[in-house]
Each structure stands twice: as structure tokens, then as C-alpha cells.
Hints:
Elements: E1 2-7, H1 20-27, E2 31-36, E3 49-50, E4 60-61, H2 63-74, H3 78-81, E5 86-96, H4 99-106, E6 110-115, H5 123-128, E7 132-135, H6 145-156, E8 192-193, E9 196-197, H7 207-222
Parallel strand pairs: 1-2, 1-6, 5-6, 5-7
Antiparallel strand pairs: 3-4, 8-9
Helix pairs in contact: 4-6
Amino acid sequence: MEIDVFTLFPEAFAWFERQRHVANALRLGHRLGYVNYRDHTPLSAGQVDDTPFGGGAGMVLRVDVVESALRARYDRDPTELRRERRVIALTPGGRVLDDALVDELAQERVLTLLAGRYEGFDERVLEHFCTEQVSIGRYVLAGGELPALVLCDAVLRKLPGALGHDDSALEESFSPALDGAPEYPHYTRPAEYRGWEVPEVLLSGHHARIREWRLARSRARAAGGEATGSGTGPLP
């Protein structure tokens, strides 16, 4: 997979590539690339934004600046680019990122992510250059770098070999293996700590009962019946 991130702060991603699953993915031949809008702006003094027509506070990323950056990277008209790859703008009002969308994106060969800043993009960027908009939640951040990191993290860990053991991604929160429910509680040593005991079923070695207990706890969390991973009672 090849993921390009267009951003004003490519340095914000440096630490990300050192995360084990990301480093694993890169070693396997997947690629992360970064394009700084400011490096390709057609305006003087590195200008990338302007005041909004109609007035109002804040600044807006210009459509000509985004086009120039896309052309520099792909050497084609950005209106044609979206026929070849998914071009995703990270916006608060986009499709909310969930496990189903992550699975969908993980099947793509190439992705382009546009991280905004200030008041966001000139609407013509979204209308003419992008295939879609994606949000990590219904709230506003200072820019699209954190959403881009979240999307990259979620997608890269789905790639075979990224986690070191492919089974690690099978039974996760919201996965098909758990029917879209949150993941069940996990415990490790010590088996007793300050009077807090690990559920007996997990110490039993009885794999069928353990599986049943885990599915029951996952369903309980989905139904809102279990706020935490606590509980040492018998298997329901």
C-alpha cells in the first residue's frame, strides 16, 4: 500500500514511523509519503491560505495551492486523479471512520489524504479534487494531521504482517469476529492483586468456556451492561 499525506506539518509524522506496527509495514514494502503544501504554493512568501469570501474569522486553504501540490506529486490534473485513487479530505463533517471503513481502505493499493488547517479547505477542493471526506469524530481539531495519523494507524495495522501475528487483528473491538461489538476484557499476571481477582474461567484452561465467556462479555459491553472489564462471577 502507498499512502500520501498532504500537510503543512510533515514533521508531525516522524515519530509515527517508529511505531512497531508501522515500521513492520514499511519493512514489508508499504510506503508513507508526505507533501508539504507550502513547498508547492504558486504564491509568494509561502502563502497557502486566504480570508474567506463573505467575511468571518479564520483563514481558508486555497484551491490553487492544493491543486499545485497535487500536480507536483502526481503530474496530472487533480480532477482526473480521483479516477485512479481515493483522495480523502480529513474534515469534521465527513463519513465517520469506523472498523468497516478501515477494512475497506485497507484493501486499497493507494490512498491520498488531505490534511486541512485553519478554517479548512476552499469548498472547491472537496467538490473537484476529492473522492470523499472522512472524520474521526464530531468535533473540531486545529488541523487534519491527527485525523490523518489515526486513519493511517488504523489502516496499517490491518495489513498482513504489520502486527507480527495476523491473529492479533481478528478479534478486536467492532470486528466481524465479535459481530461488531466491543472487545471482551483482558487480564494478565498477577492473578490476584489487592483483592481483585481474575475471573476463574480464564484460569480454567477450558477453551470452549473461555470463548463463551468472552463472547458474552463482548455482547454485554455492546448492550451497555458492562462499563468496565471487572467481574469475577460465574459464566452467565
